[in-house]
Amino acid sequence: MKLLQHRLFWPVVTLVLLLAVNAAVNSSFLRLAVRDGHLYGSLVDILKGAAPLGLVALGMTLVIATRGIDISVGAVVAIAGGVAAWMIGGSLVIHDGVSTYVSRFPMPLAIVCALAVAALCGAWNGALVAWVGMQPIIATLVLMVAGRGIAQLITNGQIITVYYAPFFFVGNGYWAGLPFPFLLAAAVFLVMAWLVRRTALGLFIEAVGINPAAAHLAGLPARRITFWAYVFCGLCAGIAGLVVSSTVKSADGNNAGLLMELDAILAVTLGGTSLTGGRFSLAGSAIGALIIQTLTYLIYSFGVPPEVNLVVKAAVVFAVMLLQSPEFRRTLAQLARRPLPAQEATR
Amino acid sequence: MSADLSLQAEPRSLPSAPPRRRRLDRKYVPLLVTVTLFCAMAALGSVMYTGFFSAQVFLNLLIDNAFLCIVAVGMTFVIVSGGIDLSVGSVVALTTMVSAALVQQQHWSPGVVIPLVLCMGAAFGAVMGLLIERFRLQPFLVTLAGMFLARGLCYLISIDSISISNPFYSAVSQLRFPVWADASLSVGAVIALAMVAIGTWAAHYTQFGRTVYAIGGNEQSAVLMGLPVRSTLVGVYAFSGFCSALGGVVFTFYMLSGYGLHAVGMELDAIAAVVIGGTLLSGGVGYVFGSLFGVLMLGIIQTLIMFDGTLSSWWTRIAIGALLLVFCLLQRAFERKRT
Q1: Which of A42, A136, A187, B244 has the fewest CB atoms within 10 Å distance of its CB?
Q2: Does A275 sit within 8 Å of B317, measured CB to CB?
């Protein structure tokens, strides 16, 4: 019974169910093989595909825990990808008969710059929310609208293709047999989990989310905590931007990270973190991202167009929202006790 | 929305009676700023670019943004009530898709299809409103799910664009009403102006409109005053859905096609237009007339960038973002003075 009460119970059950359905539809789904020293298989693909979304969702979790929301992450993904792709660029140079790839700027510098720009975007959001006192959804809406323009400005309105091979490792590489994006996301997750559970930071964030005024009166630097949550969220989106642009070996200011903010919010909600702030679960958000990726995979394996995914996602959001609503649960409880006309139940 | 996501969830202190007059004047400040800024930009364009100062250029602002204007009218009501509707762009796309599929592929008469899609939009909004009101769900999330659903339904109908060759649709899209010498308005623009007029009337002279303002001011008080809060909230989202569907019908006339990728991101443009038009996102204050100017403002930025020729189209988005920021900051200053 205690297991049922655990907050991660339902997310994990959902994930396992989805995996089971996948395995039933596709017999080779659970098969893992080692080729060239790497793990291959559908499960590995899911881990790899879920990494960018997982990264964004982890950052978003902290922001949502402070009672905020960041709808600009998709644009930040595009900006970071654009900066990295522009700075690396790369071209094939044949020197003394040996062809080598040359980047415009050194790759570490490009990566640091891309992450710095992403953190700056987060800082901009954080400053507007924490110090100017704007509503989070509106403060980040500004960057969401302008951010796509900025991303297109960086890429000059075109899709920049990257030809510098070492950069591809970020999105496509393998390390110790596992895909590098997954390891990256796992590392971020572990660092965050250590920070919020082994230091007082997690407690502070929850305190700010539950009641900012009370947290301030209790002596917490509530505004500073809120500010840094947004900076961190921007940084996470930046890392995701690097992974995305490296995976597709290009940067598209218009379409990179499109609707990612919504997927990230969905992942966080699926993981059991309430949008009203306060208690949060990093592991839940990670599982949420895996659920979304598994769902996408399942829809692909049915052979229907991926756009139909949206309908399924909508159904999932409706179901999760209704289950989280106390009013709906009360209505259900009433229905269980004395059956009402059927039309009430379907609402 | 604001009550759940913002840090300013505490109820505002009740104003004392004497300084009431002055505050009333201040309510119009954002609207005044918008109108002044619009005139300034129009003057700037007229001085800088030859051919800018003509009646048709200004009427084109309305013709090219008629659908956005109609959607913004519905959005104004939602935001005044303290909520938000993210599904409008998708409902516009769904309307174009359903219209195109029924008219072009099923050969239905436009006289049946148009009322049908309008009812569909209103019903879509009403269901979302019902969920928000009955189960106390966050408007942001419910309409987000609605957005996914409507876009997904588009793709269920067809992945590709369906172009419309129905004679009625082509005739309407060509129809122009002369206004001034050579200048003329399209059917969509006339519908948009009519919706602004209806919206203004509904907001200020009907029980529904006054209740919306009361809910936005303070929902608890509105309940205690005995106002029909629940039915009005459902009505607000149904109205927004209806406006989106009407916007979609106008968009169908404008594009003569149905496509799942139509009107991507329009919800953001509509919210931006409403905010620029002087509606407070915390609810309770706003004008439908202001939203018209918000839409025209977005239009004139586009026109200025087009006339300039050297700036690329993505500067439009950056300019809109900057403008949105300025108006939000203005609102913050305004709210601080009020409390």
Answers
A1: A187
A2: no
B145–A275 C-beta distance less than 8 A: no
Contact A149 B314 (CB under 8 A): yes
pLDDT digits (tens, 9 = 90+) for B9-43: 444 444 444 544 555 566 677 788 888 888 998 89
Q: Which of A133, A157, A308 is closest, CB to CB, to B156?
A: A308
User: What tens digit of pLDDT does each residue of A206-233 get?
Assistant: 888 888 889 889 888 889 999 999 999 9
CB contact under 8 A, B1 and A149: no
Q: For the complex shown, is ipTM > 0.90?
A: no
What residues of A are in contact with residue B84 (Cβ under 8 Å)? 137
User: B170 CA to chain A: closest CA distance, Å?
Assistant: 30
Contact map slice: B 90-109 vs A, CB within 8 A: none
B42, B260 Cβ separation under 8 angstroms: no
Q: State the greatest distance between any 2 C-alpha atoms of chain B, in Å, as a whole number.
A: 64
Is a pLDDT exceeding 70 seen at residue B281? yes
Measured CA angle at A187 (ends B5, A71), to 5 deg: 25
| Beta-carbon separation of B148 and A262 below 8 A | yes
**In the prediction, which pLDDT does B7 show?**
44
Beta bridge partners of residue B232, listed in sequence order: none
Chain A residues whose beta carbon lies within 8 Å of the beta carbon of residue B316: 149
Distance CA A274, CA A64 (A): 8
Q: How far apart are CA A307 and CA A296, in angstroms?
A: 10
Which pLDDT belongs to residue A238? 95
Q: Are A69 and A94 in contact (CB under 8 A)?
A: no
Q: Which amino acid belongs to residue A214?
A: A
pLDDT digits (tens, 9 = 90+) for A269-314: 888 888 778 888 999 999 999 998 998 888 888 777 777 778 887 8
Which CATH number is correct for B28-44+51-338, 1.10.3470, 1.25.10, 3.40.50, 1.10.287? 1.10.3470
Residues 122-181 of B with CB under 8 A from A: 130-131, 134-138, 140-142, 144-149, 151-153, 155-156, 159
Domain ranges within chain B, ordered by starting residue: 28-44+51-338
A108-156 per-position pLDDT tens digit: 899 999 999 999 999 999 999 998 888 888 888 889 888 888 998 888 8
- Given a contact cutoff of 8 angstroms between Cβ atoms, the answer to whether B58 and B260 are in contact is no
What are the backbone angles phi and psi of residue B248, rounded to the nearest 5°? Answer: -65, -40
Give residue limits of the domains in chain A. 33-303
